[in-house]
Amino acid sequence: METPMTAIEMTGVVDEQHRLKLDQLLPIPGPTRVRVIILLPSEPEDWDESEWLRAAASNPAFDFLKEREEDIYTLADGKPFYDQG
């Protein structure tokens, strides 16, 4: 059985020696082992809109939206939006 984990979001820099340096001190006592997930910014040209939509549509985090109880809107709801720009 896996141990529940808590996420802490912080920013930092990877230096020339490939070491991660955080912008602030961690809010946890140490020494202790941690798991680290590194999120790198994507360049705008790396992902087009269809790739973002495909990733969102296949992400299991949004599976709850497929449940019948979540389908609460119809085509009769709301008003059409016409972009004037």
TrEMBL record:
UniProt protein name: Uncharacterized protein
Origin species: Candidatus Hakubella thermalkaliphila
